[in-house]
Amino acid sequence: MKRFKLLFLFVVIISALPVVAEDGYDLWLRYKPLEDVRTQRSLAKQFGTVAVTGQSETVNAIKQELQLALGEMLATDIIIDNIWNSQSLLIGTPASSTQIESLGLAEKLNNLAADGYIIQNVRIGRKDVLLIASNSDVGALYGTFHLLRLMQTNQELSDLDIVETPKHMQRILNHWDNLDRTVERGYAGFSIWDWHKLPRYIYPQYIDYARANASIGINGTVLTNVNANALVLTDEYIDKAAALADVFRPYGIKVYLTARFSAPIEIGGLETADPLNEEVKEFWKQIANNIYKKIPDFGGFLVKADSEGQPGPHNYKRTHAEGANTLAEALEPHGGIVMWRAFVYSHEVPVDRALQAYNEFVPLDGKFNDNVLIQVKNGPIDFQPREPYHPLFGAMPKTPLMMEFQITQEYLGHATHLTYLAPLYTENLNTDTHIQGEGSTVAKVLDGTLHNYPITAIAGVANIGTDRNWTGHLFGQSNWYAFGRLAWDNSLSAEEIAEEWIRMTLSNDKSVIEPVVEMMMESREIGVNYRTPIGLHHIMAESHHYGPGPWVTGRRPDWTSVYYHNASENGVGFDRTVNGSNAVSQYPEPLRSIYNSVDDCPEKFLLWFHHLPWDYEMKSGRTLWNEMVYKYYTGADSVTWMQEKWNSVEPFIDDQRFKHVKQLLEMQRQDAIWWRNSCVLYFQQFSKMPIPDGFEKPENNLEYYENKQLKFVPGI
Ligand code: BDP
């Protein structure tokens, strides 16, 4: 009792102290003491002793998490038993607990995926119990994280009747990490995988990585870059990957690797990688056998083939299906999958790049083995700040398609700019393709509702690195978080995810939640406005893709900017109508007609689908030129608005994280002006129209901006 009083006093003192500096390492799993002392006391009574039934590494992970989280949030010691003994919190499975079994939940649980769970207030005998139950230990772990989230975000814990089942079976991070620890398009330091020290040295970060992922339901990780190195398939590296798999397994996370298509030549000593060659088939079987000996639950391969110089089946005049199926056959006996990327285009094909993946893959629908998925980027070009959805979604009913989103901000300011990506993800997922009537959203293609896909999956290109706060920019964490939450439940809104993340990461105080939600929700549109408004795309600086580069020309055309914006005195924009590249034809009706019609096409996609004269009249009544200028200027100005929002939270947030974001926002403001001035001056050469009155004139001329070359931008 005395001890309790002392603890209580300690908590009161702690809550009265100024907010302590934080470096962001704890992500959204900070487990701060609950602010309301009465709630804290009553929950400490309720959850001070817990029953977690079952015996497995996952059950141990649940116990450790509870020990840490409840201990911190409730400021008390937590006693955990593995049998139910009248505790008020019971976590387990019907198989591991007779009490859970006796509650008659079998039907409810059997309707869920194995990793689904329920959280309910139940009565066992004469005891009120909060129950977290699943058919699997991993489901129980997910349920545990859910309960902790409710506590972290100050939610009521009475009358709970939560039933959760994931919308996608595989929820996967793609690390574009190289074996030398550089990260392609990685802006948060080096790769967290220390291949040199593996398998003998395990960093504590690996465990925290697994905890963070499990807390949002991510259950797979592709360790290596899609621009693959065959070495990772050798015994030495498989041992290293196996060590990571061992760390991740208790958290329900499977390991995947990227497979370089020419590996049979590079590490197999063969003269060919022809997928129909018997020796090549044997090679892949051998590789799979080796891997599964060491990683029995290995997830499978992710493959980038015949794309941007990567080898593939086309080298042998074989199709993508023939290539994918050879790898799939090797994995099939072990239960592995192949995720074959649709990001293919060639400058030797004289067809608009936006059309090429569809042309290549739609004829192959139904020709892939059952354990192959096609991994498709959200838009038809390449992770641009805004793209219409990829027309492959909905066009391959016989082949499971999976989404590839980018979490790392290659085209959205790297780890320097604050851009909350959930609005981009949900805009895409909620687009109605109309393929089976109204409501046929991209989300319903992916989660299998529309075509009954036997496997469903979603991937996000990770933004994680060795930086202390994992993602470089504190708000990069929100994109990792949002990806995981949407991978679990594609019906969540960007706004509710933002609020959850803010509450857990920053504060439950309204004075923080309100301005930060507003800032996050607008940030993507603001980023579009100062970079690529009205459907402009692919006008960034070459190679590092950080700043503006509308002038980029002279390389293979589909890697230049001029190919995409087509600016001349006659106008600007890519004509993808029936009179142009006819990319609109790949979209089902009524979208095809909507996108094709200059009057009906949403203005956010106007210059994606149409080439229009500078004096074209926009819905606002402005000319296209004036509208473009207006968007560039309001985009850049809005960063100042974001700064004001952030400044308002200073009293409620620790100094370290406050200053970190403040400094980055100032860089973002300057960069936004750089984008604005560069683009406005560049396009003005063609429009030959003045910058309307009221907008300050760029402080430098176009030549200045064209000559501004950044050196050593991170992210290779
Ligand atoms: C592009 C990146 C490039 C990747 C490629 C891909 O610039 O680094 O290798 O996508 O997805 O966006 O394969």
Description:
- With 716 residues, the chain is α/β, with parallel strands linked by helices.
- It has 3 domains: 146 residues, Chitobiase, domain 2 (2-Layer Sandwich); 336 residues, Glycosidases (TIM Barrel, Alpha-Beta Barrel); 143 residues, Alpha-d-glucuronidase, C-terminal Domain.
- It is 38% helix and 10% strand.
- It is built from 23 helices and 14 strands.
- The strands form 2 sheets. Strands 7-8-9-10-11-12-13-14 form an 8-stranded parallel barrel. The protein has a 6-stranded mixed sheet with strand order 2-1-3-5-4-6.
- Helix 3 runs parallel beside helix 6.
- The protein is globular and about 80 Å long.
- The N terminus is likely disordered.
Helices and strands in order, then pairings?
Elements: H1 2-16, H2 37-47, E1 49-52, H3 57-74, E2 79-81, E3 89-92, H4 98-102, H5 106-110, E4 117-124, E5 127-133, H6 137-152, E6 161-164, E7 170-174, H7 204-215, E8 220-222, H8 235-248, E9 254-258, H9 263-266, H10 278-294, E10 300-303, H11 320-331, E11 337-341, H12 353-361, E12 372-377, E13 401-406, H13 422-429, H14 442-446, E14 457-461, H15 476-488, H16 494-505, H17 510-531, H18 562-565, H19 591-596, H20 606-609, H21 624-647, H22 655-687, H23 702-707
Parallel strand pairs: 1-2, 1-3, 3-5, 7-8, 7-14, 8-9, 9-10, 10-11, 11-12, 12-13, 13-14
Antiparallel strand pairs: 4-5, 4-6
Helix pairs in contact: 3-6, 10-11, 13-16, 15-16, 16-17, 17-21, 21-22
Bound molecules: beta-D-glucopyranuronic acid.
Residues 184-185, 226-227, 304, 308, 343, 382-383, 410 line the site of beta-D-glucopyranuronic acid (BDP).
